[in-house]
Amino acid sequence: MSEDTVSRSVTDMDESIAVPRSNGELQFDAPWQARAFGLAVALNEEGAYPWADFSGQLSEIIALGERSGEPEAYYEQWLRTIETLAMEKGLISESELVAKMTTVAAEDDHSHDDDHHHP
Question: Would 115 be classed as within a structural domain?
Fold first, then answer.
């Protein structure tokens, strides 16, 4: 995702919560990280929440992790922020989120080395 498609409020977040960069470009170490970033931006652009709500919640989650001594990886904190806001804004219930996470985890645990096709 290029910065041209992302609003300034997203890319110019406070340094303590800023998106990692390499040579000035947004940095993602895995495809899921770019998807998490894109989901957060898309939900903002669709009006699900103001960006200030996202960055404020992300800041709280980062601070909580630092206080606990067990901080999560940066984009895991993005996911937790999306989950929290999605439930707060009524986009998904906790039970729906848990069910979806269970389904995704089961799909991720399935070995794709098998010689078969999925329905």
Answer: no
